[in-house]
Known about the structure:
Largest sheet: 8 strands, mixed
Strand content: 15-25%
CATH topology: Rossmann fold
Radius of gyration: 18 Å
Shape: globular
Helix content: 25-40%
Distance between the termini: 26 Å
Amino acid sequence: MSDKNPLDPALFRPEAISPETKGINDFIIQAFGSLPEWWEIGAQTVREARAKGESGFPPLPKSPRAKVIEIAGKGGHKVPLRIIAPDNPRGVYLHIHGGGWVLGASDQQDPMLERIADNAGLAVVSVEYRLAPENPYPAGPDDCESAALWLVENAKKEFGTDRLTIGGESAGGHLSAVTLLRMRDRHGYTGFKGANLVFGAFDMAMTPSQKHFGNERLVLRTVDIEKFADAFLPGIVDRRVPDISPLYADLRDMPPALFTVGTRDALVDDTIFMYGRWIGAGREAELGVYPGGAHGFIAFPGEIARAANERIDAFLKRIVT
């Protein structure tokens, strides 16, 4: 990866992909190729399989350090928050998990959350937001907004610091951007110190890379994006309103952001376009482009995952200093 020019065309050429990354991608295609489609067997069936480690992603242990609390959400709904915190945290990281707004859970990436807690010195608070299709838009964004509001009001008391950061992966990157916009527009809060937006989906009307990725099963295909979006946004025709597609939002007063994506990700355009819009709004942003990285690549052991995760940790640590 080039630090000098994050959009160096050489990063996107086939010869930039290392043999190790090619091998990881071959493994992903094989591991995901035999999995059933969630829309055929039901989202809950796939959620239960993922909870048991029976999916294409590596099974991950649960942290003995984690604790779960519940906060009040909209309409009387309770929102669980999974907390992994070091002693005397320097700040708080509001984490929003991925999974296409349909799958995933706050307890399915504990090693990553522990790593961020320890390396960046942050109390990590992961949101157990409601999932589609049972709870379509705006349920998930509402829960993330509720979690952000709770932290603004309670972080100092709970963690000894009110230095807040936010971020997530895939659908979690999308929900992080939506939450930042809601906090600014609905509550007048622009105090987040930074945003860690990892291969997020920022245009629910579909970017070119989403539309043209095809059927290669590198975690996320065009059909997966379509099915996830239809479950999350049933009956919604205009998908370019900012609360649905933050790419189209006014990005004034957004915090410094780190954008991370691999070149073999169906959402590569989303990250590049959003990075450009962030810069175009006069906001600070960094872009990490990783040759050959598939969607979700930071979860698969390899050099590009190590490099991306180290940069994420360093960014989060720096922005709360």
